[in-house]
Specification:
The chain has about 325 residues and is mainly alpha-helical. It is about 75% helix and about 0% strand. α1 runs antiparallel to α2 and α1 packs antiparallel against α9. The two termini are about 45 Å apart.
């Protein structure tokens, strides 16, 4: 047993990594907030219980990357919400409610007491100098990007080539990812991969903007949830890597999928009439499918040698066991 945070050298949690547990817990809580809402007493009580459990998990994991992501996501999302609420007058109306005043005071007092009790252990974790070799992983990704800045060195190549791009004086640990999705994308897929990510973010941003402007309170609530989830993942992915964890990716996608499935709006471009817009849309869709086909072929070619090597390794193990 250890006083929280439960770090380091833990082995009993998913992936041997409490950051993954923290991330799943936070994303599940985001979905719960979006789905339950706050209008009825029952959901409010349930969300309070979930929030207390999530806060406990957040502290006990001792994940500094998770703490950074949560603080940033809460600060940015809360700031935007306060700004929009002040403009609409919703915040002043809410604060005049006696129940809101009592609840807010209780939360602030409880948070202050908990922070006071946990301050020593949290500070000890924050001042721990170990970063798990992340600076070396970042450096190798940058070196790969410098070698092939346009198209990168190929999907999935960072883990394979990391040792070759590690200097003799640097930490040489075998890891499967660079602990930074942006640098790894730049290393493996180059500027083209980064540009593809920006296009996707632009499409999701347009979807969120439409949802925020919606007249439905439920849609706006899911939009805030999607924004928080994506922002949290974006910040956490600066020091960790979750693109290889389907459970995490699915939870991140749930709020976006909810908005996308319920959207009846279609993106239009200023200055384009119906026929011109239809032609533009068909061209873009055609280019999209061509790009998907190229990506499938490239990935297939990249996996063929890996499959051959895996088969050879299996045969080697079989022959060794037979001997």
């Amino acid at each position: 047993f250890e006083t929280p945070p439960l770090r380091p050298l833990f082995a009993g949690l998913t992936y041997g990594n409490p950051s993954a547990v923290l991330t799943v817990q936070v994303l599940l809580t985001v979905v719960a907030y979006a789905g339950l809402g706050f209008r009825r007493p029952g959901p409010r009580l349930l969300l309070l219980i979930i929030t207390v459990l999530t806060a406990s998990v957040v502290v006990m994991t001792g994940s500094r990357g998770g703490w950074l992501a949560i603080a940033g996501a809460l600060g940015i999302t809360g700031g935007l919400w306060l700004l929009t609420s002040l403009r609409s007058g919703a915040l002043s109306r809410m604060l005049r409610d006696r129940r809101v005043q009592v609840s807010l005071g209780a939360v602030l007092l409880g948070g202050f007491i908990v922070a006071l009790v946990l301050a020593p252990t949290v500070l000890a974790r924050l001042t721990n100098q170990s970063d798990g070799g992340r600076l070396q992983y970042f450096a190798t990704a940058i070196r790969m990007f410098e070698e092939a800045p346009v198209l990168g060195t190929g999907p999935g190549t960072w883990a394979v080539q990391r040792a070759a791009y590690t200097e003799p004086s640097e930490l040489d640990w075998y890891v499967t990812h660079a602990h930074n999705i942006y640098l790894q994308t730049a290393a493996e897929l180059g500027i083209v991969g980064l540009a593809a990510g920006i296009v996707v973010l632009g499409a999701v941003g347009w979807l969120l903007l439409r949802a925020w402007r919606s007249g439905s309170a439920v849609t706006r609530r899911w939009a805030w949830a999607a924004f928080f989830a994506l922002l949290y993942m974006g910040l956490h992915s600066m020091v960790d890597f979750y693109a290889n964890m389907p459970a995490v990716m699915m939870l991140t996608a749930i709020p976006v999928a909810f908005l996308d499935g319920g959207s009846t709006e279609h993106l239009g471009l200023p200055g384009l009439g119906g026929r011109a817009w239809a032609l533009t849309r068909n061209v873009v869709q055609g280019l999209f499918w061509v790009a998907c086909l190229i990506a499938i072929v490239v990935l297939g070619r990249a996996e063929m040698p890996a499959a051959a090597h895996m088969g050879a390794l299996g045969s080697l193990f079989d022959s060794a066991f037979e001997d």
